[in-house]
Amino acid sequence: MAQSLAKEFTKGLWAEIPPFRLVLGLCPVLAVTKSVENGIGMGVATTFVLVFSNLLISLLRNVIPSKVRIACFIVIIATFVTIVELVMQAYTYELFLKLGIFIPLIVVNCIVLGRAEAFASKNGPVLSVADGLGIGLGFTLSLAALGAVREFIGNGTLTIWEGLPVFEMGGNFLPFQFMIEAPGAFVGLGLMLCLMNLIGKK
Amino acid sequence: MGDLFVLAISCIFINNILLAQFLGNCPFLGTSKKMETAVGMAMAVVFVLVMAGIITWIVDVYLLKALNVEYLRTVSFILVIASLVQFVEMFLKKSIPGLYAGLGIFLPLITTNCAVMGVCLINIKEEYTFVQATVSSFAYAVGFGLALILFAGVRERINLARVPKPLQDTSIGLVTAGIIALTFMSFKGMV
Predict the structure, then answer these.
(1) How many domains are contained in chain B?
(2) A-chain residues within 8 Å CB-CB of B185?
(3) Which residues contact B143 (CB under 8 A, 6 or more apart)?
(4) For chain A, what is the domain count?
């Protein structure tokens, strides 16, 4: 049991890490990774939704009729997204404003629905939570990594939380603003994917 | 009238839904390998997005705001979109089978296309009037179709080229999308 738990958890971190291995849920990945901080915020919000929707769906998996399952899944996911939205509005308002419409859009994030359909609707609650945590953590790490690359090259800083620069380049550094703008997101993600393919080949 | 024209232009080119706002990227990469599927997806999105934009605007103004339950926006919008897609699918199957054959498999995919939900939310966030919301929904959808079809054309050409192995498929697709996004950025000074 413990072994399979660990397996479900760790597969989200490398073997099936979204969005690299499963090319799903690209929109928030591209849009919010202007800085590490935004990336982590988005990742944590998505992880919360993933874990709890996985848990509830796997508890209800024998009750939900298979013909209307997608509609049921979406309503369950939308409920947790609303919770995240309200909590973020109350406690982390600035981050909420920065992430904007991408918080409500977690509803249509293919990763969440994909895990519900592919995993939670077929497995028990404990395994489903492990799966949700693993995939969510992998997603957060990818967002943070892409955010770090873009923020470092495009702005010369690395910020973890609330405008607290952990690292800043000296005055001679000329930021390559392309990376912060829209095209930089596509190119950055494409090149990271290429790097993953190179490493993964071994 | 002039304002609406400016709004349409800025929605199609400057704030292009795919390349500047990053919405709807999953179908963008998924259906752009062949021109045929790209055209089908683009048409399905135009069709559904205009209807979804209009209906969600009405729901928001006359139902959610009137009853003061705006926190239900996410849940109600996704339900409206999902049932609309189902309804459109049934309607087309019965009355316009030709169009259904063309759009068929793309319609269910649209429920989880964040471009549709995203535009509905943008319409509300920018506090557009009914006419503005209709124009912006249509223009965003046209922008989606334009970018998707352009990208599919480029991607078909890439298939003929020799791409280094680690860069193949999605990776080179993303880099190409970045370069197309760069060209769209040059529209920024227009309005």
Answers:
(1) 1
(2) 181-183
(3) B11, B12, B13, B15, B16, B17, B18
(4) 1
